[in-house]
Amino acid sequence: MSAGPYSYSYIFKYIIIGDMGVGKSCLLHQFTEKKFMADCPHTIGVEFGTRIIEVSGQKIKLQIWDTAGQERFRAVTRSYYRGAAGALMVYDITRRSTYNHLSSWLSDTRTLTNPSTVIFLIGNKSDLDGQRDVTYEEAKQFADENGLMFVEASAKTGEMVEEAFLETAKKIYQSIQDGRLDLNAAESGVQHKPSQTGRTTLTNDQPNKDSCSC
Amino acid sequence: MASSIISNQTQWKLTIPETHCYLGKVFYHINVQVGNVSWIVKRRYSEFAELNATLTRDQGLNKDLLPPKKFVGNLDPRFIDQRRILLELYLNRIFQLLLKTMPTSLANFLDLGNHDVMFIIKEIPRKLVAEEAKLSVLEVHSLSARLKLPCPPVDMIGYQHDISSLLESCSRTVSLSIDGSVEQRPSAENPPTMDFIPFKALKFLQLTNVPPDLIVSADALRNTLERLSWIDSGLTSIEDALLCDSVHKNQFEYRKWAVNDINLSKNCIKCVGSAVALVPDLLSLNLSSNQIESMEGLNSLDKLQKLDVSDNGILCFLDLGIDQRLASLRWINLANNRLTSLKGLGHFKSLNYLDVSSNAIGNFDEISHLCRLPHLTDLIMENNSISTNCDYRVKVLELFDDRASFVSVDGVPPSRKELDKVAVLQALRMVKEGRSPL
After folding, report:
1. Of B17, B173, B186, B239, whose CB neighbour count within 10 A is largest?
2. Do A212 and B161 count as a contact with CB atoms less than 8 A apart?
3. Predicted pLDDT of residue A5
4. Ranges of Polar residues compositional bias (chain A) (predicted)?
């Protein structure tokens, strides 16, 4: 296999969570395709996207699970938290109710992931400043109190979207360097591929029957 | 439709309602029901014994759970019936015990690989490696269903699979073909519905024998697909294909397709209506072997270059209602129809290939509709009543005047000898018309 755009040395698993209609799928689409998806349909269950990024000279593949915001899929989406290295928790700055629900999303995340999971709070739709319902300061304070990273972003314009995904990866990578995140732990959400520099495809891999990477 | 044990851990039922004796061998018909899906697996006692041996070895089950072997008189109906009841009990006990572990031997014995979403999808990565991936309706259905199911809990060992790499393979798949004819007819109450959400980069899709109502969402295809073949599937209109996922087939906004090559041959399409506005970039349309009567909607496709309406029983081309608005049309196949006239074909000034073989054209005057086409280089006329005429090729070519040497008839360019004859005939005609041949 040749070293190419698909080679990487780490895989980080992310989940994107938050209320229905806050723009989770659009954030993912903006990050993976660099395009805004208008008329995005409701996510049914989960969707999946990947992108390879670079942090401190290391190629890292992000496997991103985009979950349905609808309550009826909660049982499905909860099963994807396990083993997430990063959780992007999204609310809509123009709808206070989506912000008010953050504490319940946060407690789900804390319960279902491990202590080293990096949680990043995103206030989406920053392009709609005129319709703002939640101030930056208020959300920033919530983030600080709960030890979350925070930005306001816009899936529509792309503003700060890249940053949110990359900062999360940097923080995870830092945890690995500091030894706070144990790569050997079953549910770290990180896979290291030390000896493989050129993995072009996962297609040929036999699914590992003993472990679930979801 | 496929089911899944993981979401029906208490809604399952295993019964052996009957046995069949075939060529001196007894088959126990096991009815497996999981949720609202049920199927039948036929197994012999020896297969039960084999399963039991494996489970005893690998799972530490007590080997005496299985009703014992009998060597004499085991075709006695009373004995078989008794054994049937005991095997049913046995199956229920081991299923209950091994529901969470689900070792491969038991999964195979119950044919979960063809009926349970979690097991059906395990085979998919292997099939996606092929250059042109082929999947069954049930497999694509199971992929769609998998994304609506929770991940199997860690303790359910037999159900684990690498979903990330499966979805990655799907998202890289460029060419996919789904043949529904190899499967049994989907049941009406539980159709194996499909969406194409995991296929994010699909360019070529071929559906054979796939009824349009099985597709509940085609949104994932609209922006990426370049070529769509949907053949032999009972489509009655182009809307059936392009709006397969719409309940109200009038939502033309936002549902455009980027596709530029569509093949809907071997369906039951009669009319090309306004739905073609959903494929504004269409370059090639194949509607062969349908029942085309009208194609008026097609006139809006000003980029269309290739049109195949062979084998449709068309009586009169003019009646189809297509005209010079199709300014880019270069290639038309009208073979195997019942045309007696070529009227209307003279409109397409860009035309360079025309196949009207196997029709009912009986008059050389019909060629005059074509002889003003400035780019026509290929004309296929064989198997019409005029083509039995002894000087047929020369008579056809003669009508093209000074373009005669550029026109190949039935795939053969005119020979020197033919062109000489053409020149003589043309000169005679001019004299007849009172003009000077020079």
Report:
1. B173
2. yes
3. 57
4. 193-214
Average pLDDT over residues A167-185: 89
Mean pLDDT of chain B: 91
Residues A75-106: tens digit of each pLDDT: 999 999 998 999 999 999 999 999 999 999 99
Question: How far apart, in whole angstroms, are the C-alpha atoms of residue A36 and residue B202?
Answer: 20
CA distance B29 to chain A (A): 30
Query: Mean of the pLDDT values across residues B368-381?
Result: 93
The DSSP H or E segment spanning A88 is strand A86-92
Nearest-angstrom CA–CA distance, A83 and A109? 11
Report the chain A residue with the minimal C-alpha distance to residue B154.
A212
Q: What is the mean pLDDT of chain A?
A: 88
pLDDT at B248: 63
- Domains of chain B, earliest start first: 5-114 (3.30.1520.10), 116-225 (no CATH), 305-438 (3.80.10.10)
Residues in chain A within 8 Å Cβ distance of B169 = 202-203
pTM as predicted = 0.88
> Cβ–Cβ of A76/B164 closer than 8 Å?
no
Would the pLDDT of A212 be above 50?
Answer: no
Model confidence pLDDT, tens digit, residues A131-164: 999 999 999 999 999 999 999 999 999 999 999 9
Gap from B257 CA to chain A (nearest CA, Å): 15
Which one of B151, B157, B197 has the shortest CB-CB distance to A79? B151
Which distant-in-sequence residues (6+ apart) come within 8 Å of A86 by Cβ? A12, A13, A14, A15, A117, A118, A119, A120, A168, A169, A171, A172, A189
* Paired strand residues for B409: B379, B412
Phi/psi-derived region of residue B111, left when phi > 0, alpha when psi is between -120 and 50, beta in every other case: left
Per-residue pLDDT averaged across B350-370, rounded? 94
- At B207, give phi and psi (nearest 5°): -115, 125
pLDDT per residue as tens digits for the range B321-355: 998 899 999 999 999 999 999 999 998 999 999 99
Q: At what angle do helices B45-59 and B77-98 cross, to 10 degrees?
A: 30
Tell me which chain A residues have a C-beta less than 8 angstroms from the C-beta of B122.
207
B197 neighbourhood in chain A, CB within 8 Å? 44, 47
Q: Which residues of B touch A76 (CB under 8 A)?
A: 148-150
* CATH code of domain A10-192: 3.40.50.300
Contact A169, A131 (CB under 8 A): no
Q: State how far residue A213 is from chain B, nearest Cα, in angstroms.
A: 6
Q: Least CB-CB distance to B164: which of A44, A63, A209?
A: A63
